[in-house]
């Protein structure tokens, strides 16, 4: 059976999670003329009063007033709900999405890790599930205040190939806001490729207390990163998503050229927030184990991060 495309030419958006990622992309969609609503929690009062501030090489913006809601508020229906929450919030994701999802609603998941789309499809069979892989250096530096440092491109792919026709208007909406967006041939391959950066550089930034320039510039840290990337590549191949020849070298070269950057996990650790260990480390380990592949370096770093996270957030 062929899915019936339900792709509006100018889709409206609800951004679930107005942080470094959701706030930035929501801002660019507004710049491009899209109808955008934001859902915020700790920043809600500040954004309602002062607006949403984005400092960016693409141009500084203050969106004021801006349509921002608490998750308990009645929220007008949108064509696309963009999931920009950290995966540490996924225990409550279905509850947050339930009032936002209707027959044919597009769920665009911008989270990092594996198996999120499978969970969304199981919880919301009436929705159309897309995945997005973001190449973005952006930090939230204060309530309603985001600093975009570098990059910003988005790769999009459907969870169900019958929904590939939904990508074009979303790509156009991002492009109108100055964001390069492209359709990717495989969502699973894109997720594994992103993990090849996230697993080493997020984890090592916490364990070694270093930003990307220090990690890539130090020979010992770089060897650790290369070992972790190698294990991701092995797991991806075992799961039917082999990387192209030269991918690892290209990834390291891109990181070397990157604006010095504190990965999100390092910032979360410093702020004593929960770390995204489950979907970024445990799920890839689980999927690799199903294919008979052990990943000892990744398993070790996952255990180290789990210990540090628990100790870091322990109450005195």
Automatic annotation (TrEMBL):
Residues 14-160 form the Ketopantoate reductase N-terminal domain. Keywords: NADP, Oxidoreductase, Pantothenate biosynthesis. Residues 187-305 form the Ketopantoate reductase C-terminal domain. GO terms for molecular function: 2-dehydropantoate 2-reductase activity. Coiled coil: none annotated. Its EC number is 1.1.1.169. PANTHER family: 2-DEHYDROPANTOATE 2-REDUCTASE (PTHR21708:SF26), PROBABLE 2-DEHYDROPANTOATE 2-REDUCTASE (PTHR21708). Belongs to the ketopantoate reductase family. Catalyzes the NADPH-dependent reduction of ketopantoate into pantoic acid. This is 2-dehydropantoate 2-reductase. It comes from Thioalkalicoccus limnaeus.
């Amino acid at each position: 059976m062929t899915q019936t495309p339900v792709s509006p030419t100018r889709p409206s958006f609800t951004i679930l999670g107005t942080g470094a990622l959701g706030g930035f992309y929501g801002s660019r969609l507004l710049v491009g003329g899209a109808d955008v609503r934001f859902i915020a929690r700790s920043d809600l009062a500040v954004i309602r009063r002062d607006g949403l501030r984005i400092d960016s090489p693409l141009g500084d913006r203050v969106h004021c007033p801006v349509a921002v809601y608490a998750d308990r508020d009645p929220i007008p229906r949108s064509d696309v709900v963009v999931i920009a929450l950290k995966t540490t919030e996924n225990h409550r994701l279905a509850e947050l999405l339930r009032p936002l999802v209707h027959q044919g609603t597009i769920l665009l998941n911008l989270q990092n890790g594996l198996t999120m789309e499978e969970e969304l499809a199981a919880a919301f069979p009436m929705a159309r599930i897309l995945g997005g892989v973001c190449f973005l250096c952006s930090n939230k530096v204060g309530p309603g205040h985001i600093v975009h440092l570098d990059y910003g491109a988005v790769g999009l792919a459907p969870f169900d190939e019958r929904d590939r026709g939904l990508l074009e208007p979303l790509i156009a909406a991002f492009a109108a806001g100055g964001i390069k967006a492209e359709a990717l041939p495989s969502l699973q391959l894109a997720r594994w490729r992103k993990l090849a950066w996230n697993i080493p550089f997020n984890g090592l930034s916490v364990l070694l207390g270093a930003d990307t320039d220090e990690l890539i510039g130090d020979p010992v840290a770089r060897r650790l990163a290369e070992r972790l990337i190698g294990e991701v590549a092995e797991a991806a191949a075992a799961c039917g998503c082999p990387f192209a020849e030269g991918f690892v070298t290209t990834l390291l070269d891109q990181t070397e050229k990157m604006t010095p950057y504190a990965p999100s996990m390092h910032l979360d650790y410093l702020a004593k927030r929960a770390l995204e260990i489950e979907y970024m480390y445990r799920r890839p380990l689980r999927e690799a184990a199903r294919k008979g592949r052990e990943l000892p370096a990744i398993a070790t770093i996952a255990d180290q991060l789990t210990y540090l996270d628990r100790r870091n957030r322990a109450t005195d």
